[in-house]
Amino acid sequence: MATLTTNLNYLQPTGYKLVIDRKNFPNLEYFAQSVSHPGVAANASEIPFRSLAQTPFVGASLTYGEVNANIILDEDMQSYTEMHDWIRRVVDETPRRALDRDTNSPPTYCDITLSILSSQNEVLKKVRYLECCPTTLGEIQFESTATGTEFLTFPVSFRFTYFELV
User: Fold this and answer.
1) What is the C-alpha to C-alpha distance for residues 145 and 142, in angstroms, rounded to an integer?
2) Is pLDDT of 98 > 60?
3) pLDDT confidence band for 154 (50 / 70 / 90)
4) pLDDT at 135 (0 to 100)
5) Which of 108, 117, 125, 144 has the smallest count of CB within 10 Å of its CB?
6) Looking at residue 51, what DSSP letter applies?
7) In 3D, which of 105, 113, 107 has the Cα closest to residue 67?
8) What is the share, in percent, of the chain residues with pLDDT greater than 70?
């Protein structure tokens, strides 16, 4: 039986920290402006039954969406360069090399951790996405008519094997 929470504070949208392999991708952690946690779907099987056309039954597998992040672009474009090099490496490396974690080059697949923070900026829970790799590196919109101090950002998407709540 589930118990009612004693924490009546609401989760704030700014209360997070994204960590993507600090050693090899330090700028992605610092410049992550937003993160979108993916949905999960239990795949349904359609089974014919008597005079009914199809009866849906929950399947035996899950489909996870992608982790999406919006990254602020620094003047030296280090955050973009890190992502670009990573997505190129995913495409260029052979499958054997992609799974070899003993090389000196940055990994092709790595875990991403989303820390969820309390209103006092203490870690409440972590979501660990396992064996992530980038699938989309979005566009950068340069615009000469922009006003104020808007900063350039770019979207990035990751596929992963599964996630765990820790």
Assistant:
1) 9
2) no
3) very high
4) 93
5) 144
6) T
7) 113
8) 89
Residue 88, classed as helix, strand or coil, is helix
What tokens appear for 21 in the block? Answer: 């392999």
User: Token match 């590196």: residue?
Assistant: 137
Two tokens at 36? 């979108």
- Residue ranges covered by each domain of the chain: 16-38+65-165
- Which residues fall within 8 angstroms of residue 87, CB to CB, at 6 or more apart? 134, 135, 137
Whether pTM > 0.85 for this model: the answer is no
Distance between CA 108 and CA 162 in Å, rounded? 16
* The predicted structure's pLDDT at residue 159: 95
Closest to 28 (Cα-Cα) out of 116, 87, 97:
87
* Residue 82: both structure tokens together: 């890190």
Calpha distance 22→93 (Å, rounded): 22
Fold exhibited by the domain 16-38+65-165:
Pnp Oxidase; Chain A (2.30.110)
The string over 110-120, giving b where at least 16 C-beta atoms fall within 10 Å of a residue's C-beta and e elsewhere, is bbbbbbbbeee
Half-sphere exposure of 21 (CA within 13 A, CB side): 17
Q: What is the pLDDT of residue 157?
A: 95
Rounded CA separation 96/43 (Å): 30
CB 52 within 8 A of CB 75: no
Among residues 58, 35, 61, 38, the alpha carbon closest in space to that of 46 is found at: 58
Place of tokens 């974690």: 101
